């Protein structure tokens, strides 16, 4: 138990107690009620214990003479894509069944963040009469607007909410499914005009959501950051149907970073290979199945959060329907990477500010062009930090006490 408030000890039987977290390289003592809990970023360190358990299975040794060249495979459209990574990506999608890979080109990127920019570049004609409109349905991933506006490109222009977009002409709709921040399954919204759609499927993996069919959209973006938790390796990939679009995306990355780190690609290939191998033992008692492990962990956190939230009417969480997951072979529920929490108390207008007053950092609804009564809470942080969050949330609900 970590928290003592309003003169009484909050008894919440969580394992955390000696809470330490590493943020920005410095260790923060979480055992104190003064400590700040940072649940703003979606830094996916939750799966670290699994990777520790894998030990040397995932170790990659790269001798000094290896991987010197810029080139990885000159016969591939994406000439800097390591053949091992290409194989591992295709194999994993086949094993999980979350995306069709046959007849798709793979473009590797430095995270899917780079691929979002590559896709915007590739989908705009170089000599269009005016910048192509870029839209996404509210609440949308806060980086889309930043990335679109950052370079003040003449090729495209941020136009905001897809639901209210009514211009004729060329547009690009960014569809995140499951969505960041609210975990909902989404389809394109804009129907008029000449539209291109980029499907960001960063969270379309069995630990976050039931896999109901293999996705087969024109452009699908994935990232190892959210799939396995290896955000630091900075590897994302796009599955692209149309060859000219895949070529233009490759060109963007060539001009931007002359390819993608080979060391990262080889590490990613190894990691993805290990999780594909471990999927073969699904459901057995000795299973090292990553998705099974990760799904249990996410389900446990969601159960704990729902339990605490359900003890009062102050906060509420979205509900997700049970659906048949083809990968798990049973009905499962979504356990999104973020909790999209709503504050129902009339006195609290800005939930992010309220939580900040309680030394809990979240990302407020405004950042997603949504009501400030909402906050996005990362479910992917360290165990001790998550447990302390639950304790503090419980204390807020039981006492209405605002720290500091
Ligand atoms: C929906 C979505 N797309 C893309 C990204 C970027 O991921 P990456 O680490 O691969 O750049 C994120 C990261 O939070 C995300 O939530």
What does this structure look like?
It is a single chain. Helix 2 (83-96) runs parallel beside helix 7 (262-279) and helix 8 packs parallel to helix 10 (383-399). The chain has helices at 48-54, 83-96, 111-123, 143-150, 224-227, 243-257, 262-279, 290-309, 351-357, 383-399; strands spanning 4-5, 8-9, 20-23, 26-29, 37-38, 105-110, 132-136, 156-161, 170-176, 194-200, 219-223, 235-240, 315-316, 323-325, 330-332, 338-343, 360-361, 363-364, 374-378. It is built from ten helices and 19 strands. With 404 residues, the chain is α/β, with parallel strands linked by helices. It folds into two domains: 4-51 and 287-399, Alpha-Beta Complex (Aspartate Aminotransferase, domain 1), CATH 3.90.1150; 83-279, 3-Layer(aba) Sandwich (Aspartate Aminotransferase, domain 2). It is globular and about 65 Å long. The strands form six sheets. Strands 6-12-11-10-9-7-8 form a seven-stranded mixed beta sheet. Bound molecules: pyridoxal-5'-phosphate. InterPro entries: Alliinase_C, Alliinase_N_sf, Ethylene_sulfur-biosynth, PyrdxlP-dep_Trfase, PyrdxlP-dep_Trfase_major, PyrdxlP-dep_Trfase_small.
Write the layout of secondary structure elements.
Layout: E1 4-5, E2 8-9, E3 20-23, E4 26-29, E5 37-38, H1 48-54, H2 83-96, E6 105-110, H3 111-123, E7 132-136, H4 143-150, E8 156-161, E9 170-176, E10 194-200, E11 219-223, H5 224-227, E12 235-240, H6 243-257, H7 262-279, H8 290-309, E13 315-316, E14 323-325, E15 330-332, E16 338-343, H9 351-357, E17 360-361, E18 363-364, E19 374-378, H10 383-399
Parallel strand pairs: 5-17, 7-8, 7-9, 9-10, 10-11
Antiparallel strand pairs: 1-2, 3-4, 6-12, 11-12, 13-16, 14-15, 16-19, 18-19
Helix pairs in contact: 2-7, 3-6, 8-10
The structure holds pyridoxal-5'-phosphate.
């Amino acid at each position: 138990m970590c928290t003592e408030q309003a003169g009484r000890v909050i008894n919440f039987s969580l394992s955390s107690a000696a809470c330490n977290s590493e943020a920005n390289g410095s260790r923060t003592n979480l055992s104190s009620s003064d400590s700040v809990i940072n649940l703003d970023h979606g830094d996916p360190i939750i799966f670290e214990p699994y990777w520790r358990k894998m030990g040397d299975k995932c170790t990659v040794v790269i001798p000094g003479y290896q991987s010197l060249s810029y080139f990885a495979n000159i016969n591939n459209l994406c000439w800097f894509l390591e053949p091992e990574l290409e194989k591992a990506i295709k194999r994993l999608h086949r094993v999980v069944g979350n995306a069709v890979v046959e007849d798709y080109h793979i473009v590797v990127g430095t995270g899917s963040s780079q691929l979002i920019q590559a896709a915007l570049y590739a989908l705009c004609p170089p000599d269009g009469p005016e910048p192509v409109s870029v839209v996404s349905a509210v609440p949308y991933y806060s980086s889309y607007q930043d990335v679109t506006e950052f370079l003040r490109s003449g090729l495209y222009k941020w136009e905001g909410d897809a639901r209210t977009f009514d211009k004729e002409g060329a547009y690009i709709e960014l569809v995140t499914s499951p969505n960041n921040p609210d975990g909902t399954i989404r389809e394109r919204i804009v129907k008029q005009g000449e539209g291109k759609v980029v499907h960001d499927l960063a969270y379309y993996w069995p630990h976050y959501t039931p896999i109901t069919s293999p996705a087969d959209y024109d452009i699908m973006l994935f990232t190892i950051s959210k799939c396995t938790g290896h955000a630091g390796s900075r590897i994302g990939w796009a599955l692209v149907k149309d060859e000219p679009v895949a070529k233009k995306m490759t060109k963007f990355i060539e001009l931007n970073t002359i390819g993608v780190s080979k060391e990262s690609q080889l590490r990613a290939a190894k990691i993805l290979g290990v999780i594909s191998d471990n999927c073969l033992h699904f459901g057995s008692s000795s299973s090292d199945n990553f998705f099974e492990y990760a799904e249990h962990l996410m389900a446990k956190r969601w159960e704990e959060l729902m339990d605490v939230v359900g003890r009062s009417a102050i906060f509420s969480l979205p509900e997700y329907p049970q659906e048949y997951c083809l990968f798990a072979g049973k009905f499962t529920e979504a356990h999104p990477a973020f909790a999209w929490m709503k504050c129902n108390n009339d006195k609290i207008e800005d939930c992010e500010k309220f939580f900040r007053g309680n030394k809990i950092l979240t990302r407020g609804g405004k950042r997603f062009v949504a009501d400030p009564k909402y906050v996005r809470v990362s479910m992917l942080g360290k165990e001790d930090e998550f447990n302390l969050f639950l304790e503090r949330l419980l204390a807020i609900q039981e006492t209405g006490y605002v720290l500091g």
